[in-house]
Design a protein that fits this description.
elongated, FAD/NAD(P)-binding domain, about 325 residues, alpha/beta, 7-stranded mixed β-sheet, 15 strands, 2 domains, 8 helices
Length: about 325
């Protein structure tokens, strides 16, 4: 069994930030990532530009230089890749954590799909982008339904239903419409989401107003069929002929994994795993949360930019606990 002082679950920006702090503190750590390095960012849309500036995305006190004020996905991948290589961060990609249990000794046993580890402390930095918020309607499992958006090209000359009205949905609707798709939107409320960025809102509202993009307000998806989607609208059911459904309905934490780790999670929303806001320690001793996972279902509250202090905060505590364990 591989024994470490610290196991970090998740190899995204937050996990790397924690790893850098551990590296600087001389703590024996390992990052376990079920996909590739910064897996979620890799699966962002190919031409995506971040809403945050490169300055706000910096971690480990390492400058993030981009061509524009707001970096692209490609620039972010390069930045985090160079960070991992420059610091020599110990990351095991493509190794999925399956469960965790506490031993009588107080150590934690972490089982992955490849190996078994034992650690004094654990940081859970799993984010939420890998688990889409499902609509739970008949036909959602059809190949035409996508919960992730990559590029506009596949939708040229196609009829596409975009579900949602937040930033991602509005951006997707605008981009594929400009590339030649026939676009309709299913929107639960009576208007575009209030948090849509100021440079996106007038564009999508004008396209809807002029009829270029057909918006069904106060509407939800009832059923998805191979050649159409049925909406519940204020005027009754409406069947829309379409080729694709892009469900930009957001994402949620992987609660199955969190439960398999033994974390205490309330049933009522926002289902924030039990932890101390001051120390980020969970109800399991020496097990911490880091990053956006600290907000549970309220996924729009925390981002890379306002969780960058989590790594150093946690590592200071881990360092003290490890010193205490050595004294004992």
């Amino acid at each position: 069994m591989d024994t470490r002082s610290l196991i970090i679950i998740g190899g995204g920006p937050t996990g790397l930030n924690c790893a850098i702090a551990a590296e600087k503190a001389g703590i024996d750590y390992l990052v376990l990532e079920k996909g590739m390095l910064v897996n979620s960012i890799y699966h962002f849309p190919v031409n995506m530009t971040f809403f945050s500036t490169s300055k706000l995305l910096e971690i480990g006190n390492t400058p993030f230089i981009s061509h524009g004020e707001k970096p692209t996905r490609r620039e972010a991948l390069e930045y985090y890749r160079r960070l991992q290589q420059s610091y020599g961060l110990k990351v095991h990609p493509y190794e999925a954590v399956q469960r965790m249990e506490r031993r009588d000794s107080g150590m934690y046993r972490i089982l992955t799909d490849k190996a078994e580890y034992e650690a004094h402390s654990v940081i859970v930095a799993t984010g939420f982008y890998d688990t889409p918020r499902l609509m739970n309607v008949p036909g959602e499992e059809l190949p035409k339904v996508k919960h992730y958006y990559d590029d506009a090209h596949p939708y040229v000359s196609q009829k596409v239903l975009v579900v949602g009205a937040a930033n991602s949905a509005c951006q997707v609707a605008l981009e594929i419409w400009r590339k030649g798709a026939e676009v309709a939107m299913a929107i639960r409320d009576d208007k575009i989401y209030k948090g849509v960025k100021y440079w996106i809102r007038p564009d999508i509202e004008n396209r809807i107003r002029e009829g270029s993009i057909k918006a069904y307000f106060n509407s939800s998806v009832r059923e998805i069929r191979p050649r159409e989607a049925v909406l519940d609208t204020p005027e009754g059911p409406v069947a829309l002929e379409n080729d694709w459904v892009l469900a930009m309905t957001g994402y949620v934490p992987n609660y199955t994994l969190l439960e398999n780790l033994g974390l205490e999670i309330p049933e009522e929303e926002p289902r924030i795993p039990v932890h101390s806001p001051e120390t980020l320690e969970t109800s399991l001793p020496n097990v911490y949360l880091a990053g956006v996972i600290c907000a549970g279902m309220e996924t729009s509250k925390l981002f890379i930019e306002n969780t960058r202090d989590h790594g150093e905060l946690i590592i200071r505590q881990v360092e003290k606990r490890l010193e205490g364990a050595l004294v004992d």
